[in-house]
Amino acid sequence: MLQLGSSTIASGGASRPDAASRVLLVFPRFNPNSFWALKDSCRVADAKAPSPPLGLLTVAAMLPPEWPVRLVDCNTVDLSDDDLASVDLVMTGGMLPQADHALEVIARCRAAGVPVCVGGPDATSRPDLYVDADFRVLGEAEGILERFLAAWRAGERCGTFEAVKFQADVTASPVPRWDLIDFSDYLFVGLQYSRGCPFTCEFCDIIELYGRVPRAKRTDQILAELDRLLALGHRGHVDFVDDNLIGNKKALKKFLPELKAWQVTHGYPFMFSTEASLNLADDEQLLAMMRDANFFVVFIGIESGDDATLVSMQKKQNTRRSIAGSVERIYAAGLFAIAGFIIGFDTETGAVRQQMGDTIDATAIPIAVLGLLTALPNTQLSRRLTREGRTIEGWAQSPEGSGDQCTAGLNFHTLRPRRDVLDDYKAVLERINAPEAFFDRLTRVTAALRRPRLDVRFNARHWARNLRVFGRTALEITLHRPALRWPFWRFLAFALARNPRAVEFVLMNVVMFLHVGRFSRFVVDDMERRIAAIDAGHDPAQPPRVSLAAVPAVATA
To answer: CA angle, 124 as apex, 121 and 127 as ends, to 5°?
Structure first.
C-alpha cells in the first residue's frame, strides 16, 4: 500500500504521462418515494428536477481545465451506455435518498470497465456501502481532490482518499460549472455561502460532516458566482444551500450589504431562499438586511413544540421562546417560513399528535415538512442508540428503509409502541395537509407578510415563466384537484385584494402543495399498511410497499 497524505492508495497500473482525461459527472436519481423529488411542483413548472447538483458542478470547476467534462443528472435524463463508453472516468455521489441509484451507477461503471470515483455526504457517512467503487473521495472536495487527481495522473486506478475533517478552505472553492446545465430543467439554482453550524442537535449529521465552526466564503467569491449566473442567463430563484446561513452572524452582516448593493446595481435579478435556525427571529437588524437583499423564504428546523423534547434532542435554542411569536417576526420582516418537524423522540407521549398539530397551526407555516426520526449514520443519535442496543440491523435494505425521513425513519427500536408512533404521525399528516387547513395557514401568512418595495427591473423571461406556472397550477387545481378548487380561488381573491405585493411569493406555497398534498396521501397510506402489519402480528419491517408513482396525480389534494 502507498501512502499519499491522509489517503491510502492501492498500487494500480503503471505511471503514465499526464493526459487530458474525459470525465463524466453522474448525479444519481433521488429515491422516487422521496419528499424532495417535488415531482408535481416540477411538472407544473415544466421543470425536470428541483435543483442542479451543486456539489458535482463545483467539483467540475476543480478539475484540470483541459479535461473534457460532461454532466448527466439522472433526475433529468437517463444515463446511457454510450455515455459510459465515451469517457475515461466517472465521478458520482450524493445524499442518502440517492444511495440506491448511486450503487446502480457504480455497478454499471464496473460492468463497462470504466473507473468510477464516488464522493459526497452519503459516501463520507457510510464509506463501507461504497466499497465497489474504484475510488472513494471522502470529506470536503477542497481538502482532498488534488490528492486524488495526483494519484490518477500517476496511473493509480483505485484507492481511498479522506480529507481532514473541517479543514477545507472554502475561500478556495471555485465558481461552479453552471455552464454544464440547462437552467430550464430546474425549479431553482443553488449556491453555497458557508458550511457548518454552531448547534449540537443530536439527530443532525451536519456538524459531523462540516463541523460546528461555520466557514464562510469571501464576498467577492459569492458576487462572482452571481455574476456568472447572470451572464449565463439565469433569473429568479437562487437558493443559498447553507445548512444554517446565520451560523456566523458577524460575517453574514458584513456580506449582506454588499449583496444588496449588487442586487440594486443589477435590478434585483434574483430572489433568495435559505435555511436558518429559529433564533434568526431574535435579530431584527439581520432580518431587515436579508429582506433588503431580497430573501423571501427561510427553512427552519423547529422539530417540536415540546420543550422537554427539544432539550432531549439538544435543541435548546428553540426553548424558552414562543415559537409562533418567533415565526410571526419573520413574517413581519417580509420572509415566509417553511419548517421541519419530527415525530419519534423518546420523550414523546400520546399527546404529541395534538401538540404537534397545534404548533404547526399556531405558526401558520403553510408547508410543514413532517418526518419520522431517523438515526443518520455517524450522528450522536446513532451512536447513542447503538450503545443502548436499539438499532435495527439491515434497516436500509428492508422494505421500510426505502425512501427518506418521511417514509424510512424509525430505524431503531422506539420506547413507545411503534404502532402508536406511526398512528400519531399519520394523524398529524392528515390534519396539517387537509386542503382547508393548508389554505387557512396560507391566508394568515398572506395577511402577515410584509414584502418590501424593491426597484426590480422588468424581466420578460422571468415573468413569462411565472405566468405559465400560475396558469398550469390554476388549470390543474380547477380541473383535476376538486378538494383544492374552491379553497384556492377564495385564497387567490383574498391575496390579490389584501396583499398583492406578496402574491408571487405565497403562490409558491400552492405550487409546492401540489406535490405535498399527494405525497402526504402516499405516506398516510404507507403508515396504514405498516400499522395493519403490526396489528396482524407481522414483522414491521416487512409490509408491502408501493411507489409514490402509484398514487394518482389528479383528483387528490
So the answer is: 130
